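Thread: sanity check for a docking pose with zinc ion

Original post by kr_44:
Hi all, I'm comparing my docking run against an independent structure prediction. Below are the sequence and the ligand SMILES. Could someone generate the full complex and paste the structure tokens? I mainly care about where the ligand ends up relative to the chain.
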Amino acid sequence: MRTHAAPLRIYWLALKRGLVQAEGHGLHVALSEETVLEWFKLLRLPPYQAAYPVRPMGSACPECPPREGNGGEVTTERTFPEGRKMACLLCRSCWLELEPTSQMGRGSDAPVGRR
Ligand SMILES: [Zn+2]
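Reply from moderator J.T.:
Ran it for you. Here is the predicted complex with zinc ion included:
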């Protein structure tokens, strides 16, 4: 019973706040601390607002020397409504690239260059 108590409490809180699905009244939550912290970093929520640097769209890796063509081997690690998290396949450094509309109205995290 002990293993069921916490999920039932969470369900009850979600139900009271109207957060369960309308159809079937389901609630599907599977979050690890690591996942939550990563989302805080992606969405730049305090105190993790500076966890990843913000760089212009289409940036090359800032750590690796430029290669022929488009710079370092960069991959999109994750996308989210405001932008995407990019990672260098060589040195594993990561940064955020934000959609232009999400860059307005933010002061401290405004990316350098690119207007
Ligand atoms: Zn790199």
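The pocket of zinc ion is lined by residues 61, 63-64, 72, 88, 90-91, 93 (CB under 6 Å). Hope that helps with the comparison, let us know if your pose agrees.
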